[in-house]
Amino acid sequence: MNREITCTVCGETTLARPEPIYDGFKKTGEAFVCTACGARYASAEATPFTAGPQKPSLFTEADRPIFASIFDDTERQRSCCWCKHLVINPFEQRCGLSNRQTEATDLCEQFEKK
Ligand SMILES: [Zn+2]
């Protein structure tokens, strides 16, 4: 993918750094950041690529299974099975903080590594 841009902020012809946009844990798109001045473009369409819009590659990103973007290593570390608040008894597993039943794969705002 050609990431060369002519930045409308600093005027440099340089490379754009892709930056994933998340809505919760779902990747909803990609922003691009000028590597020369740090200007941020909210979408591929808004980024002044020298080669024009990068729609085909954006589709490729969006078509990737959600699984891959949610369960990368750092996210998986936040799941309840790694959390010190998880209480397991013979009948259920629940969160000791919210007292709600939980799944080992749940991701939690109050996560604390055990
Ligand atoms: Zn720039």
Give short descriptive properties of this protein.
114 residues; alpha+beta; four-stranded antiparallel beta sheet; two-stranded antiparallel ribbon; 3 helices; 6 strands; binds zinc ion
Account of the 3D structure:
By secondary structure, the protein is an alpha+beta fold. It has 2 domains: 66 residues, no CATH class; 44 residues, Ubiquitin Ligase Nedd4, Chain: W. It is 16% helix and 27% strand. The chain is built from 3 helices and 6 strands. The strands form 2 sheets. A 4-stranded antiparallel β-sheet has the order 1-2-3-4. The protein has a two-stranded antiparallel ribbon with strand order 5-6. A hairpin with a 2-residue loop joins strand 2 and strand 3. The radius of gyration is 20 Å and the shape is rod-shaped. The N and C termini lie far apart (41 Å). The structure holds zinc ion. Zinc ion (ZN) binds next to loops.
Break the fold down into its secondary structure elements and pairings.
Layout: E1 4-6, E2 13-23, E3 26-34, E4 40-41, H1 55-63, H2 66-70, H3 73-76, E5 86-88, E6 93-95
Antiparallel strand pairs: 1-2, 2-3, 3-4, 5-6
The structure holds zinc ion.
- The sequence of SSEs as H and E is EEEEHHHEE
Identify low-pLDDT runs.
none
The tally of beta strands, per DSSP, is 6
Helix content: 10-25%
- The total domain count is 2
Q: What gyration radius follows from the Cα positions, in whole Å?
A: 20 Å
Mean pLDDT: 80
Span between N and C termini?
Answer: 41 Å
* Strand order in the largest sheet: 1-2-3-4
Q: In percent, how much strand structure appears in the residues?
A: 25-35%
Which ligands occur here? zinc ion
Largest sheet: 4 strands, antiparallel
Number of helices: 3
Judged by helices, strands and strand pairing, the structural class is: alpha+beta
Shape type = rod-shaped
